[in-house]
C-alpha cells in the first residue's frame, strides 16, 4: 500500500471540498493524503467570464489535472464527473466514484412559477437554458460563470440563477434554494452530483486504495450515463443529458431538428444493453441533425 497519496484538484472551494471528501475517505481506510492544487484552462477562462460553451466544453477543467497524474506530480485526480470526457486518456483509469450527492438542478432567487413573464435567468449551461426554454419560452437568459459564491452574488433582480444542488450541498448553502427541478423533466448533466477519481493504470497500490472507497451504486449509475454519452459521440455540441435511476435512464438532446427525449428501462443492476444505447444515440443524432 502506498504511504501517501497526492490528490490533484482544482483550486475552487467546491473542488477542494470534493477532494477533501475523497482524501478523508482514503484516510479512514488507513492511507495518508495531501492535496495538490492545479490551475486549469477552465478556471482561467472562468475568471475572465468567457462563456463555457465557447472554450471547448468537456475537458477544460480536467486536462491539466490529468496531466499532473500522468507526469508524476500527483497520484490521483479528483473531478466532478460531469466535467470528465467519456474517453479516458491512455495511462489513466477511473479508480473510484464517490457517493453521489443530489444530481438535480435548482433555481436560486425565485421559483419557476414565481418568475414573471420575461424574467431574467442566469446560467452558463446550454443544457439548462434549453430545458427551461421548453417550459418557459418567455424567459430571458443571461450568461453566468464563476465560483459558487460569485454566482450567488449575481442573482438578477426579479430573476433566478440555475445551479446544481450538489454544488450547494458541498458548501452547505442549500438553504438558498428557491426550487429543486424535477430531474425527469430537467434532466441533469451526465455524472452530475458525483466525484470521479482517476489514477495511473499501472499503479496497483493506488488502484487498490481507491477500490476500498469506490461506491458501487454511483459507479453503476454514472457509467450507464457515460455509456450513452459515449455512444452519442464526444463531438456532439448540442445540449445533451442522461440521468440513471434504479430502473430507468432518462435521455435528453436538443438540436437543429428539435428536442429528442427518451426513457430507457434498466435492469436491477443498472446495466444498459450497448446495442440499445447505440440505437438511442442514433435516434438522437437524427433528431438533432448531427
Task: Please outline the major beta sheet.
Answer: 5 strands, mixed
Share of residues in helices: 25-40%
Rg over CA atoms, rounded to whole Å, is 19 Å
Q: Based on CA inertia axes, which overall geometry fits? A: globular
* Major β-sheet strand ordering: 2-1-3-10-4
Number of helices: 9
**CATH superfamily name of the largest domain?**
Periplasmic binding protein-like II
Can you describe what's shown?
The structure is a single chain. With 290 residues, this protein is α/β, with parallel strands linked by helices. It has helices at 13-28, 41-47, 63-70, 126-135, 148-152, 165-170, 204-211, 216-232, 274-288; strands spanning 4-9, 32-37, 76-80, 92-97, 105-108, 120-122, 140-142, 160-164, 177-180, 195-200, 240-244, 248-255, 258-265. The chain folds into three domains: 1-99 and 194-214, Periplasmic binding protein-like II (D-Maltodextrin-Binding Protein, domain 2, 3-Layer(aba) Sandwich); 105-180, D-Maltodextrin-Binding Protein, domain 2, CATH 3.40.190; 215-290, Porphobilinogen deaminase, C-terminal domain (Double Stranded RNA Binding Domain). The protein is built from nine helices and 13 strands. Strand 12 and strand 13 (258-265) form a beta hairpin. Helix 8 crosses helix 9.
Blueprint of the fold:
Elements: E1 4-9, H1 13-28, E2 32-37, H2 41-47, H3 63-70, E3 76-80, E4 92-97, E5 105-108, E6 120-122, H4 126-135, E7 140-142, H5 148-152, E8 160-164, H6 165-170, E9 177-180, E10 195-200, H7 204-211, H8 216-232, E11 240-244, E12 248-255, E13 258-265, H9 274-288
Helix pairs in contact: 8-9
Relevant terms:
single chain; 290 residues; alpha/beta; D-Maltodextrin-Binding Protein, domain 2; Double Stranded RNA Binding Domain; five-stranded mixed beta sheet; 9 helices
Amino acid at each position: 500500500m502506498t504511504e501517501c497519496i497526492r490528490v490533484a484538484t482544482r483550486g475552487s472551494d467546491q473542488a477542494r471540498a470534493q477532494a477533501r471528501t475523497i482524501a478523508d475517505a482514503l484516510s479512514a481506510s488507513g492511507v495518508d493524503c495531501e492535496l495538490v492544487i492545479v490551475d486549469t484552462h477552465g478556471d482561467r477562462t472562468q475568471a475572465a467570464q468567457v462563456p463555457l460553451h465557447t472554450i471547448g466544453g468537456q475537458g477544460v477543467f480536467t486536462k491539466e489535472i490529468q496531466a499532473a497524474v500522468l507526469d508524476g506530480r500527483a497520484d490521483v485526480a479528483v473531478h466532478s464527473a460531469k466535467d470528465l470526457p467519456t474517453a479516458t486518456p491512455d495511462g489513466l483509469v477511473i479508480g473510484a466514484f464517490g457517493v453521489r450527492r443530489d444530481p438535480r438542478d435548482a433555481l436560486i432567487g425565485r421559483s419557476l412559477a414565481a418568475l414573471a413573464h420575461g424574467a431574467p435567468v442566469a446560467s452558463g449551461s446550454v443544457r439548462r437554458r434549453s430545458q427551461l426554454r421548453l417550459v418557459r419560452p418567455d424567459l430571458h437568459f443571461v450568461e453566468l460563470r464563476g465560483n459558487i459564491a460569485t454566482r450567488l452574488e449575481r442573482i438578477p433582480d426579479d430573476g433566478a440563477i440555475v445551479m446544481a444542488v450538489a454544488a450547494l450541498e458541498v458548501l452547505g448553502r442549500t438553504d438558498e434554494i428557491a426550487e429543486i427541478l424535477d430531474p425527469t423533466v430537467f434532466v441533469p448533466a451526465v455524472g452530475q452530483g458525483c466525484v470521479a477519481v482517476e489514477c495511473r493504470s499501472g499503479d496497483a497500490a493506488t488502484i487498490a486504495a481507491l477500490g476500498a472507497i469506490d461506491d458501487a451504486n454511483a459507479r453503476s449509475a454514472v457509467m450507464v450515463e457515460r455509456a450513452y454519452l459515449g455512444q452519442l459521440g464526444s463531438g456532439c455540441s448540442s445540449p445533451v443529458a442522461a440521468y440513471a435511476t434504479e430502473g430507468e435512464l432518462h435521455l435528453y438532446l436538443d438540436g437543429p431538428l428539435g428536442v429528442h427525449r427518451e426513457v430507457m428501462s434498466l435492469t436491477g443492476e443498472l446495466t444498459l444493453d450497448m446495442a440499445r444505447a447505440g440505437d438511442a444515440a442514433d435516434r438522437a443524432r437524427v433528431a438533432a441533425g448531427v
